[in-house]
Design goal:
By secondary structure, this protein is of the alpha/beta class. It has 14 helices and eleven strands.
Length: 334
């Protein structure tokens, strides 16, 4: 009888051991650590959207995946980061979709002047079949998957002395632009005299009258204090770029199916989060500009501005490979 009891105890203990092994294995299972790189300042709304993505992933995977965010070009410039994700040396990249134009040239079209009519148009196109098709091309050609599509806020025209109400007012004005062909071509088409100047020198160039104005989003206008050396801000959204959150497909495919679903959802949610921040930032900045005496000009007729760039695709369509894509976007029903 005694031997029988001992045998029973032994069997029970033996059966419990696999359970102990499993529990111990789960206890020791380490989270997956991924790195996300961008070139934007830590406190900017754009980086906050990256942190929101990281927070959502960590929470919803119950710490199964942790996304470490490296802002301010800590891991390289935008091209380095984009290439890093394609090559597999970096897990995730947040930045301009045009960074992948060497694989999908059509991404450049989203930086063309006045390609979008308004934010509703932007959202319909960027979250619709046109952009989906380009995202599919990127996945097939480069092994890079797009998780999020981010509204960056409009870029406006700031001038020193002459207020700009119509394209005629812009004619001949020296407007500082980045030394990027899309920008120089865009402002040439609008009638201005595009003048590339190093960004660090723009404040002094405005102050000394080297240029008559510049273009920028409101956040940078305030952050760089360009309102101190200008008088007028024309709220003509000449550009509204598309930024993306991209992940190396090999990294993504190794995630559990439930984690993949979480990543996709977090990409969408963090995109909406940035949109909310950008709307709030725009409202706050415009109120601030008014308080410091900046003349805010709301164009009365956007069609006259669009008329100035109606032939832009015919002249510069080589920048995105398919000139007709510009018109497809402009004519997209939403």
């Amino acid at each position: 009888m005694r031997n029988y009891k001992l045998i029973c105890i032994f069997v029970v203990v033996f059966l419990m051991i696999p359970g102990l092994w499993i529990n111990n294995a789960h206890a020791k299972e380490k989270p997956i650590i991924l790195k996300l790189g961008n070139v934007i300042p830590p406190t900017s709304a754009k980086n906050l959207s990256c942190l929101k993505f990281s927070e959502l992933v960590q929470k919803q995977t119950k710490n199964g995946v942790q996304v470490q965010v490296f802002p301010s070009s800590q891991l390289g410039n935008e091209r380095d980061l984009a290439q890093g994700v394609q090559m597999g040396t970096l897990d995730l990249f947040w930045g301009d979709a045009a960074a992948y134009s060497s694989y999908v040239k059509e991404f450049n079209v989203f930086n063309a002047p006045l390609v979008f009519k308004d934010t509703d148009h932007w959202e319909a196109v960027v979250w619709g079949p046109i952009f989906d098709g380009l995202a599919d091309q990127l996945l097939k050609k480069a092994g890079v998957r797009i998780l999020g599509r981010y509204w960056m806020g409009e870029r406006y025209i700031l001038t020193r002395t002459k207020p700009v109400y119509t394209p005629e007012d812009l004619k001949g004005l020296k407007i500082r632009v980045p030394d990027i062909r899309m920008y120089t071509a865009g402002f040439k088409a609008l009638g201005a005299n595009p003048t590339p100047i190093n960004y660090a020198e723009v404040y002094m160039a405005l102050q000394q009258g080297v240029v008559d104005g510049m273009e920028n989003p409101v956040g940078l206008i305030r952050g760089m204090k360009f309102y101190e050396v200008t008088k007028n801000l024309t709220l003509m959204a000449w550009s509204n770029a598309v930024n993306i959150l991209a992940i190396n497909e090999s990294v993504f495919s190794k995630l559990k199916p439930e984690y993949q679903k979480i990543f996709k959802q977090a990409g969408r949610e963090s995109s909406k989060y940035l949109e909310m921040l950008m709307v709030k930032e725009k409202e706050e900045n415009l109120k601030f500009f008014e308080s410091v005496g900046l003349n805010l000009i709301q164009p009365k007729d956007m069609e006259e501005w669009r008329a100035k760039v109606k032939d832009f695709p015919k002249e510069y369509g080589d920048l995105w490979g398919r000139p007709e894509l510009y018109y497809e976007i402009q004519n997209y029903k939403y």
